[in-house]
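Task 17 of the worksheet. Students: predict the tertiary structure of the chain below and write it out as structure tokens. Keep your answer in the requested format; marks are given for formatting as well as content.
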Amino acid sequence: MELTLEHASTAEVYKLLIGCVVPRPIAWITSQNTEGVVNLAPFSFFNAVASSPPTISVSFAYNVQNQDGRKDTLANIQQTGEFVVNTATEPHEVLVNESAVNYPRERGEPHELGIETVPSSLVKPPRLALAAVALECRLEREISIGEGPGSATLVLARVLHAHIRDDLVNEHMHVDVRKLAPIGRLAGHDYCYVHDVFTLKRRSYGEHNEDT
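Model answer:
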């Protein structure tokens, strides 16, 4: 297939991108509105951006189900400037999926789903008690991309504090991905596990030339 994307529909482009850009890590985000309601939702347009300053990115798609086009999480982040990225891991796959339901803004997913939260260290939104890793974040910048359905708001946020389960990280700050057991997002209703891990050492140009 050869496809010039400007000639494709928004739905076709979306299906193509989520099918090609895989697997995607999942940011299971807790946020809080000004009334104190805690929201929880998963987002897979998510990644690390920089280590100095420690920065992550999350893209929030236009929400056709809300009149203002904003997902509840984005509305909360814009109001308060704070949120927590909890890792989505086994054995919490079903809860991650259930938290994607578009609950009314006055009803918090942790309460509705019976998920325990605990206070964060530096931000007001709580983290999930079950999360193996939780990153407390502060909004740094938001970038609007397009308008209406198919558009998005890209959020860049600084990671202020990290909660990591003791058995997951060693003295060299290496995280054991096998123990972490993250889940990833694919297309449609599909997810994936990280069970098969392989190692390839990245060689320098000099090392490469020694073998040729």
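Marker's comment: The first helix runs from residue 10 to 20. Residues 99 and 146 are 26 Å apart (CA to CA).
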